[in-house]
Amino acid sequence: MGSADLVAQAKRAAAFAAVNKHVTPDVRVLGVGTGSTVVFVVERLAELRAQGQLHPELVCVPTSFQSSQLIVAAGLRPAELNDLPADGDGLHAPIDVTIDGADEVDAELNVIKGGGAAHLREKVVAAASRALVIVGDSTKDARVLGDKWAGGVPVEVAPLAWRTAKAQIERIALPGAFELAAPAATLRQAVRKAGPVVTDNGNFVLDVCFGRIHDPPAVERRVMMVPGVVEVGIFSGMACEAWFGNEDGTIACRI
Ligand code: 5RP
């Protein structure tokens, strides 16, 4: 088996384990993340649906165009967050559980997301969920954010503000919060088309390298203060559990 196949197998094992544990027949509202690992989440959901093991009225809240396509193709029912009834505790967290991928997870379950440019909707859905469960292969499993993932922190910005936001982000100084003397931001470019990546929300993405991030909540808060920033791909303190698949077929769970 080639290395890409082994990585896919590792992602699949983590995705299946998370679905088996969390998508029990009493789950009525499920958040569905974005990315290549989530493809396996939906594959398992389709199997459970065919076996009659899902709640008959289960609805799935997508986090991107890709995610809504997967949900529909698997014969599951998509739902918009705004159409879900409030849950009575005043927080409007109507989603039982969301299962999503990640670019990196640290020892305290802080997460970098947005490799697929979907982190705005992913964070909104995560915040409306009673539990956020992360799935991925073991390359995502780090002690500190920035240990392994070299892609930087994705930051969604309004197109009109990308240059000013980039300049202001590169001047952020938070002593002790991250490794580099100054962050370095790059406007994400589309792979085959000329020009920047445009998100599902019509915005651009800056990938910001901080080196190792020692204080994810401080960096997340500070970047959010820059005018024109719509969302930052650091999810501090949101995940409750992460599953990592290894290439040898084993899986690890961090709680
Ligand atoms: C999309 C994301 C993805 O969940 C993240 O990039 C991981 O993707 P993959 O499962 O393909 O490795 O945050 O915005």
TrEMBL record:
Pathway it works in: Carbohydrate degradation; pentose phosphate pathway; D-ribose 5-phosphate from D-ribulose 5-phosphate (non-oxidative stage): step 1/1
GO molecular function (one): ribose-5-phosphate isomerase activity
SUPFAM superfamilies reported for this sequence: D-ribose-5-phosphate isomerase (RpiA), lid domain (SSF75445), NagB/RpiA/CoA transferase-like (SSF100950)
Coiled coil (residue ranges): none
Catalytic activity line of the entry: aldehydo-D-ribose 5-phosphate = D-ribulose 5-phosphate
InterPro entries reported in the protein's UniProt record: NagB/RpiA_transferase-like (IPR037171), Ribose5P_isomerase_type_A (IPR004788)
PANTHER family attached to this UniProt entry: RIBOSE-5-PHOSPHATE ISOMERASE (PTHR11934)
Protein's name according to its UniProt entry: Ribose-5-phosphate isomerase
Organism of derivation: Coemansia javaensis
Lineage: Eukaryota, Fungi, Fungi incertae sedis, Zoopagomycota, Kickxellomycotina
